[in-house]
Amino acid sequence: MDNRFQTRRQFLKTSALAAASVPFVGAPVSSARAAGPERKIGFALAGLGNLSTHQLAPALQKTKYCRLAGVVTGHPAKAKLWQAQYNIPDQNIYSYDTMTQMAGNPDIDVVYVVTPNGLHAEHTIRAAQAGKHVLCEKPMEVSVEKCQQMINVCKAAGRQLAVGYRLHFEPANLECVRLVRNKVFGDLKVINAGFGFRLGDPAQWRLRRALAGGGPLMDVGIYALQATRYLTGEEPVRVSGLETKTDPVKFSEVEESIAWQMKFPSGVIANCSATYNAAGMDYFAAYADRGWFQLHPAYNYNGNRGTRSDGQTIQFPDIDQFAAEMDDFAQCILENRPTKVPGEEGLRDVKIMMAIYEAATSGKTVELA
Ligand code: NDP
After folding, report:
1. Residue 79 CA, closest ligand 1 atom number
2. Is 138 a catalytic residue?
């Protein structure tokens, strides 16, 4: 089956899929499965920065099928603190250089790669070659070639590769997909979407091209891009773009703000933007032939909510999106079925983002195959 449509269909069926159990061809039965269904999947977090510290480690405590088994870090002092806080044994502490030694450690099933974007391939490949499944943060990498390499290596190792697209597990976003699929407001015509914030510390890796791959497009614009793709269930065929810098010193290596347009095969047009220098941009609005709906905020960890042209609101109790994402990946491994957010999904976004950059720098519309 075309993986793209499989992904879209699965997006709508989060819970149904969990029960369905589709075999994942090529993946050997994991050690967790072999040890019995009661065993939780052991996750090692690679890169103990903000996301790992403030979101992923706490989320792991809320999961049903996962446990924090180990860490990979370049800083032994951080490892000590994590060991004390989360009761992690010495043998489950690794550096980026010793990751390959995980091969002999059955306590770790999954490496969650949470390092800067331009290091995702290196760390994913090391984990897969050590026989571990990989959950990799977004954006998958900084080039199409590196994404493809990650997919190839995980496939050759018979390990699953998923991308950390947490909104595929978030009820308000899923409800908006349902509104489109059920044509509640008719056929979708236009989407406006944007995500941005004011970036602080000028010394951070997000402003360095080699590690970030780009600016706000790669970091947060990817959420707006994702929204257009999961709302339409289609892939864009044409993109145009514009970049701007009002602070060329701070943003010497990456764009400060970017706007882009996409055309989809059904004729839907999307207007999107992303910025590192304006506050509070976090939305999408979708216009169909009989009405509209919007989420604002749309991409937060909590509190995503919206309105509809018929006066109804879109609001659900908050869930921990990271816990849901990790539990789903753990179930994929336990049940030997494919993830709905595979490496191929991450690769598609990177391919489109590269086309957007090409369009923005050349000033020309870029066709996507
Ligand atoms: P941080 O800078 O806070 O942490 C990154 C960590 O990576 C560092 O603390 C460090 O951990 C490790 N690292 C290894 N090599 C380097 C290097 N050369 N330079 C800097 N850090 C290095 O970043 P975030 O946690 O905010 O982001 C990490 C990833 O997660 C990114 O890909 C980002 O896009 C993604 N992300 C996803 C979010 C989501 O909602 N899904 C939200 C935020 C981020 P150590 O010291 O342990 O080696």
Report:
1. 47
2. yes
CA gap 161, 151 in Å, rounded: 7
Q: Nearest to residue 256, comparing CAs of 211, 219, 297, 210?
A: 219
Q: Where are any strands of DSSP class E within 170-252? A: 188-198, 238-244
Angstrom distance (rounded) from CA 42 to CA 31? 10
Pocket test for ligand 1, best of 45, 48, 51 (most atoms within 8 A of CB): 51
Say what the pTM is.
0.92
**DSSP annotation string for 297-327:** S-SSSS--EEEETTS-EEE-----HHHHHHH
> Does ligand 1 come within 6 angstroms of the Cβ of 116?
yes
pLDDT score of 39: 76
Mean pLDDT computed over 300-321: 98
Q: What is the position in ligand 1's atom list of the atom closest to the CA of 52?
A: 25
Residue 212: partners with Cβ closer than 8 Å, 6 or more residues away? 116, 117, 118, 142, 205, 206, 218, 219, 254
- CA–centroid distance, 70 to ligand 1, in Å, is 17
pLDDT over 50 at 115, yes or no: yes
Pocket flag, ligand 1, residue 250 (CB < 6 Å) = no
Report, as an integer, the average pLDDT of 256-273: 98
Does an H or E element contain 349, and which?
helix 343-362
